Amino acid sequence: MTKSYLFEVKMSCGGCSGAITRVLNKQKEAEKVKDFTVSLPKQLVLVESDTLSLDDVNDIIAKTQKTIVNKKEVIQGWKLPEAEGEKVEWDAVPTPVVM
Amino acid sequence: MTKSYLFEVKMSCGGCSGAITRVLNKQKEAEKVKDFTVSLPKQLVLVESDTLSLDDVNDIIAKTQKTIVNKKEVIQGWKLPEAEGEKVEWDAVPTPVVM
Description:
CATH topology of chain A: Alpha-Beta Plaits
Strand order of the largest sheet of chain A: 2-3-1-4
Distance between the termini of chain A: 15 Å
Largest interface: A-B, 16 and 16 residues
Number of strands of chain A: 4
Structural class of chain A: alpha+beta
Largest sheet of chain A: 4 strands, antiparallel
Oligomer: homodimer
Number of helices of chain A: 2
Helix content of chain A: 25-40%
Radius of gyration of chain A: 13 Å
Number of domains of chain A: 1
CATH architecture of chain A: 2-Layer Sandwich
């Protein structure tokens, strides 16, 4: 089952977001990450995976030495708003219902 | 014997150089790196170590996903010029004499 994980990460330039993009692309090539989006203006990284846990993805992003401010699983299918200026309210992003 | 390694690394902001500083600080705490200097304006990283090889240090820096443009061992004791504007000519940095 695919899961979606949202990370708030401190990225101050395209070099910072590029580093995270590269580390996640490697996981995508290894078919561990299904898809991902990195948004420098929103300071957010959204990762979809069939196999990795939230902590697994945390460890992958942490390799870049970027500071992870916040992380949570979000409902599958949630996407980052495409408009650059559209802010995402962290607490408003829906999380999966625990059975 | 302490060895000194010089790396030319693409860093575009303080977040980029900070990531490299953090990964090298961890190695310093683990006493694998003796000392190091990261210069964002010069795009250079100088690392001194008693135990690590050039390739070891390469792998540590590469974890941050920053692009390593160039690398070489330089003579022990060589330091980065402190003046920000002072450019370093890569080929002019002396390398150890091979016996």
